[in-house]
């Protein structure tokens, strides 16, 4: 692929995409580290550890549902109005509604706000990934994909370090939501000054020419309008690619949220009484591994091939998740190193996905296709988190049991990936 953007414009695009995903990561990491403090504050005397875990599951599920909806519709919006404008809209969504969380008075209000935050969280990923992939040459895409994945988890790492220095407690938690509103500035910049993808502009021009040509033919009156991205993705010949993308995007997403994230409230429960910053330290170790893993995933995919890499990642994530919940515990010497290792292996997928998904779909539906593949998994994740919450209660509030059980989802990836096309040598062409 070639691009008409200057080198400086490509770097501006890259910084905007990385910034959008960095703050996306802040939103994803916010409730795992703040949830129990929020619940203790808003529930007051009604709070119990089991109820706190149940609300953690609800907040997570609300965010995932919002992200699923936002990823589909704001991803489709990116194919219609442009990557940069849809990116700006998405950033404004998660910034504004996160900031309003500072004024929540009840758990139900916070639940609604987490859904609305999720709309923006879901919309950023497909538009940022499509924009960066289309503005850089094919030979650069493994590095660009790695940076996209690392940015998301870099936001979680950044948040953990902030929370490690300024503790989030039942008496002091609203400030973190006020801070989460700051990326609105980046959203406004994306709407106004970030260059648009030349590939998207060329694709729109071609579609416009096709539409104009159809008006000149005798059969114009019998022709159907050009299909929307969503309609096109859910009918042949692209339907099978869409379904495959959904499957391979869902497995790591469900694993990350229905399984891995239980380690943070577990660390808060065990270590919070004696070390208020322990939950942030735990999230920091995981996020450090995740930053390295999500960058490395794209490089492994380029080295081993797309399918073989995904299968190996699936096996490794299943083993490390079981070890994290059943082979150690918070405050033990081995806990944080294993958390780091699990964060590294389980997030290799999130460097793999920004490399693979844009290769799976043509330019005219790339943002919508990538958004659907990545974010429909969040519907499954929301259901998985609700189920995990019920399982958590049924297992007597045992964090190790619920985390290890839900981590078995990674084993499905070893099988599913062999139905996906191998795009290792594919270029981003129309």
Q: Would you mind describing this structure in some detail?
A:
There is one protein chain. This protein is mostly helical and 430 residues long. The chain has one domain (8-203, 229-419): MFS general substrate transporter like domains (Growth Hormone, Chain: A, Up-down Bundle), CATH 1.20.1250. The protein contains 18 helices and no strands. It has helices at 7-43, 49-81, 83-100, 107-135, 141-165, 174-179, 184-192, 198-216, 229-233, 239-259, 263-271, 278-304, 306-326, 335-346, 349-360, 366-394, 399-406, 411-416. The longest helix has 37 residues, at 7-43. The radius of gyration is 21 Å and the shape is globular.
Query: Can you tell me the CATH topology?
Result: Growth Hormone, Chain: A
The tally of domains stands at: 1
Structural class: mainly alpha
Would you identify the regions where 5 or more consecutive residues have pLDDT less than 50? 216-226
CATH architecture identity = Up-down Bundle
Let me know the largest β-sheet. none
Radius of gyration: 21 Å
Q: What portion of residues belong to β-strands? A: under 5%
Cα end-to-end separation: 10 Å
CATH domain class: Mainly Alpha
Secondary structure tally, helices: 18
Q: Residue-averaged pLDDT, rounded?
A: 86
- The named CATH superfamily: MFS general substrate transporter like domains
The SSE order reads HHHHHHHHHHHHHHHHHH
Characterize the overall form.
globular
**Helical content band:** over 70%
């Amino acid at each position: 692929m070639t691009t008409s953007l200057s080198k400086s414009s490509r770097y501006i695009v890259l910084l905007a995409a990385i910034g959008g995903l960095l703050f996306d990561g802040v939103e994803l990491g916010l409730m795992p580290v703040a949830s129990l403090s929020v619940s203790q504050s808003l529930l007051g005397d009604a709070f119990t550890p089991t109820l706190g875990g149940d609300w953690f599951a609800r907040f997570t599920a609300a965010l995932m549902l919002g992200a699923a909806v936002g990823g589909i519709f704001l991803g489709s919006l990116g194919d219609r109005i442009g990557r940069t404008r849809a990116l700006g809209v998405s950033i404004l969504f998660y910034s504004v509604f996160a900031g309003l969380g500072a004024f929540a008075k009840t758990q139900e209000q916070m639940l609604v706000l987490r859904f609305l935050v999720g709309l923006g969280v879901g919309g950023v990923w497909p538009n940022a990934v499509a924009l960066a992939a289309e503005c850089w040459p094919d030979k650069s895409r493994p590095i660009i994909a790695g940076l996209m994945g690392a940015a998301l988890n870099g936001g979680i790492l950044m948040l953990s370090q902030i929370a490690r220095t300024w503790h989030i407690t039942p008496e002091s938690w609203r400030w973190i939501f006020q801070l989460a509103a700051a990326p609105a500035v980046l959203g406004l910049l994306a709407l106004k000054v970030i260059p648009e993808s030349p590939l998207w502009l060329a694709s729109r021009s071609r579609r416009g020419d096709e539409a104009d040509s159809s008006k000149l033919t005798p059969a114009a009156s019998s022709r159907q309008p050009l299909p929307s991205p969503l309609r096109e993705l859910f009918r042949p010949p692209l339907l099978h690619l869409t379904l495959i993308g959904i499957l391979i995007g869902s497995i790591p997403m469900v694993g990350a949220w229905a399984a891995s994230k239980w380690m943070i409230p577990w660390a808060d429960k065990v270590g919070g009484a004696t070390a208020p910053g322990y939950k942030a330290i735990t999230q920091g170790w995981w996020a450090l591994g995740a930053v390295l893993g999500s960058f490395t995933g794209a490089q492994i995919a380029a080295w081993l091939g797309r399918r073989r890499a995904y299968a190996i990642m699936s096996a490794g994530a299943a083993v490390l998740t079981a070890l994290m919940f059943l082979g150690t515990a918070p405050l033990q010497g081995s806990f944080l190193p294993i958390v780091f290792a699990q964060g590294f292996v389980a997030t290799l997928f999130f460097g793999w996905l920004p490399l693979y998904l844009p290769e799976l779909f043509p330019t005219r539906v790339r943002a919508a296709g990538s958004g659907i593949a990545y974010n429909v998994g969040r519907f499954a994740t929301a259901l998985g988190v609700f189920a995990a919450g019920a399982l958590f209660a049924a297992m007597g509030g045992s964090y190790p049991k619920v985390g290890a059980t839900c981590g078995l989802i990674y084993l499905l990836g070893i099988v599913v990936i062999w139905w996906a096309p191998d795009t290792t040598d594919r270029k981003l062409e129309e």
